[in-house]
Amino acid sequence: MNHLDLYFLPDSESVDLPLDKLEPSRRRPTGVLHAAERMEAAAKGEYSRRAPISVTPIGDGRFRIVDGNSTYAVAMEWGWSTIRCRIVVEGSSGSER
Description:
Blueprint: E1 15-18, E2 22-23, H1 29-43, E3 53-59, E4 62-67, H2 69-77, E5 82-87
Helix pairs in contact: 1-2
């Protein structure tokens, strides 16, 4: 089992992207704290897993995080090399949550 499966819901349209290819769009200290607590609980089966984070292409193989900035921050703190993402095009219908 991939460790990402402990934290993220299955999604046939998601891809695992390297963290160094992602750029956060914001970071809220309280959001990061809550994300860490929820991710730890999800890994133990005590909390529901989240959908993959949403990213949008910004060129040169890089992506900006649209939804999941706190989850990304926790993944960085925990030393992950990849994170589960859903690539969306901003402004298209149904692409954001």
